[in-house]
Amino acid sequence: MTVASDICIVGPSKRFLSGISYYTIRLANAMSVKRDVSIICFRQLLPTFLFPGKSHVGKNISSLSFSSKIPVFDGMDYNNPITWADAFYFIKKQNPDVIILQWWTSSVAQMHLLLKLFASLLNKPKIIIEFHEVVDPFEESILPIRLYSKITGKLLRKNLDAYITHSESDKQLVAERYAIAPEKIHVIPHGLYDQYGEVLDSKKAKEALSIKEEFVILSFGLIRKYKGIPYLIRAFEQLPPEIIEKSRLLIVGEIWEDRKELVEQVEASPYSSQVTLVDEYVPDDKISLYFSAADVVVLPYLRASQSGIAHIAMSFGKPVVVSEVGGLKESMAGYEGTFFVPPGNVESIREAVLSLFGTSERYEAPDQKWDKIINRYIELIQSI
Q1: Partner residues linked to 252 by β-bridges
Q2: CATH number for the domain including 254?
């Protein structure tokens, strides 16, 4: 006997914890309030030693979990056909009407293709791909991965029922790059990451982090080349000396690319004593501490589709200095605490940060609650 289930959402498990893991959980929990939901998690995405964040793989550093009423298959491994068969029987049992595939890297293309095949052999549910990234710049730079991504991606995207992006700019990029009819691409905003609790007292948060300076400039999240951290360091160095001595540049996040260059830049800085580099994937219970201590969050991205970090910052009501790129131009435009700067422009970053020195204003988070966003998903599902 099969169990009726409206929607099956597919995404990464917490073993390879990432922003997409958080997104999958938040989306599923919110969706389960209005629809029957099941989950398939990718447990082993690729050989662990190849994963830039291998130091946190398998660690229990997040308290966020799926609702107890959601059936979860955790998980499906890239290298284990037994788990593929288990995923097949899970889909057969749940009998979903719609499958939503989370896309952020070509490393999951093989498993997505398998699930697409399984669906075709069963009750032929509608299939939607939700794009969190149009193309990963690191994967695009390596020829074998680029070719693999191109071939598997083309097979996966063929003849699907709908596509989701989180901004109009990404919709345009997806339509152009993958030759998808724009009317089949639907824009649904990214929900706020507001699961990290209340804002703590700023002074107490600074004390807990052993920060004595009055002004904390926070850069948070995975450190990759396109995040533009070197430009932030240079902008910090160009602040007036009397401001720098009262400031702490706090760079927090697991370094995935150019670790040697970044460490050397910090060590060579004439103000290295005012810079703290925390190379780790931060557990959930410390996130509130960092954002409560921050007086401004700076995201000097050179390119971006979306930023989970921006959504955390907005949920804490912090001013955000952010590059005016990609989907960030749309997702941040309605937030009064946004201060846009051109990408890679050191002087603009410096001026924006300097303008916020001595201010303590908190801003109202935008109305991007998950219950409202789920209504958009349901409207789309009903339309197909």
Answers
A1: 220, 278
A2: 3.40.50.2000
